[in-house]
Write a structure and sequence with these properties.
Helix content: over 70%
Radius of gyration: 40 Å
Structural class: mainly alpha
Oligomer: single chain
Largest sheet: none
Strand content: under 5%
Length: 95
């Protein structure tokens, strides 16, 4: 092959390589943009889930406090009921 033919072939190969590299770089950039968009969406979902979990945690704490209050109230009611039962038993034992 002549020097001119080799030179032309090398130029075509360089152009093909350059075109391939440019095409691959564009595709990689597009994929990275898509990944960034997906990561942004995922970040938003994670933030919303975090907020919901905090709300649920607060609700559970509030419900626990209400149950503790109810338990305390029930202890008082049991004590009063026991005292009333004792008085009723004493009154029914009187002839």
């Amino acid at each position: 092959m002549s020097e001119a033919g080799k030179s032309r072939l090398e130029k075509v190969q360089r152009d093909d390589n350059s075109s391939f590299i440019a095409s691959e770089q564009q595709e990689q950039q597009m994929l990275m943009r898509q990944q960034d968009e997906h990561l942004d969406e995922l970040s938003g979902v994670v933030n919303r889930l975090g907020a919901v979990s905090l709300t649920i945690g607060q609700e559970l704490e509030d419900q626990g406090n209400l149950l503790n209050d109810l338990d305390d109230d029930m202890d008082g009611v049991r004590a009063r009921l026991g005292a009333i039962q004792v008085r009723c038993a004493q009154n029914s034992a009187i002839p």
